[in-house]
């Protein structure tokens, strides 16, 4: 078996190789560093993918707690909110966000689709069933919709944000909303 080489990772990301771990306590070996990184990546994967469609198909499957998804990123909350009114294709979601924000939030297509893929992997949205194509519609478009879990997560996020706004109003950071 090859002897592990102890290393220290500097704040700038550079590596310093030490000849013996006994001389420098607190240094990680390269192997232990790799194991730690793998463990962190795996735990993040399981946290973000706590809901799987195959598990949901079984009769005793429990839906995950919405808390594992909160807080949502602002763009994720926007995408879910735009899909709450019904099925939309990616470009339609982008246009809805642009219109809703008065042009202040303009997502690039690549960025938007990264968020869509992440939400889809988390089970919050799904591709809708194939639809009849209208004359002015492109048959390559993929339509997305909220899943029941996605609707629950969106509701929990909106409740969380409402509580945050009420706190800001109570502390006079912002004035109360007038309807």
Could you please describe the fold and organization of this structure?
The chain has 179 residues and is mainly α. It has two domains: 6-48, no CATH class; 62-170, Winged helix-like DNA-binding domain superfamily/Winged helix DNA-binding domain (Arc Repressor Mutant, subunit A, Orthogonal Bundle). The chain is 45% helix and 10% strand. The chain contains six helices and six strands; from the N terminus they run E-E-E-H-H-H-E-H-H-E-E-H. The protein has helices at residues 30-48, 53-57, 74-83, 90-100, 109-121, 148-170; strands at 6-9, 15-17, 28-29, 88-89, 125-127, 143-146. The strands form two sheets. Strands 2-1-3 form a three-stranded antiparallel beta sheet. A hairpin with a 5-residue loop joins strand 1 and strand 2. Helix 3 (74-83) crosses helix 4 (90-100). The termini are far apart. Residues 51-60 have low confidence and may be disordered.
Task: Describe this structure in a few short sentences.
With 179 residues, the chain is mostly helical. It has helices at 30-48, 53-57, 74-83, 90-100, 109-121, 148-170; strands at 6-9, 15-17, 28-29, 88-89, 125-127, 143-146. The protein is globular, with a radius of gyration of 23 Å.
């Amino acid at each position: 078996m090859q002897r592990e080489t102890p290393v220290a990772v500097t704040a700038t990301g550079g590596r310093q190789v030490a000849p013996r771990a006994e001389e420098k306590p607190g240094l990680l070996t390269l192997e232990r560093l790799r194991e730690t990184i793998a463990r962190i990546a795996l735990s993040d994967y399981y946290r973000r993918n706590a809901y799987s469609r195959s598990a949901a198909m079984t009769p005793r499957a429990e839906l995950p707690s919405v808390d594992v998804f909160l807080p949502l990123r602002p763009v994720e909350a926007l995408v879910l909110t735009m899909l709450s009114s019904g099925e939309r294709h990616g470009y339609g979601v982008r246009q809805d966000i642009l219109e809703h924000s008065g042009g202040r939030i303009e997502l690039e297509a690549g960025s938007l689709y990264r968020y869509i893929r992440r939400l889809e992997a988390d089970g919050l949205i799904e591709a809708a069933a194939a639809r009849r194509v209208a004359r002015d519609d492109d048959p390559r478009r993929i339509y997305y919709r909220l899943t029941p879990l996605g609707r629950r997560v969106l509701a929990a996020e909106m409740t969380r944000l409402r509580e945050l706004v009420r706190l800001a109003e109570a502390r006079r950071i912002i004035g109360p909303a007038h309807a």
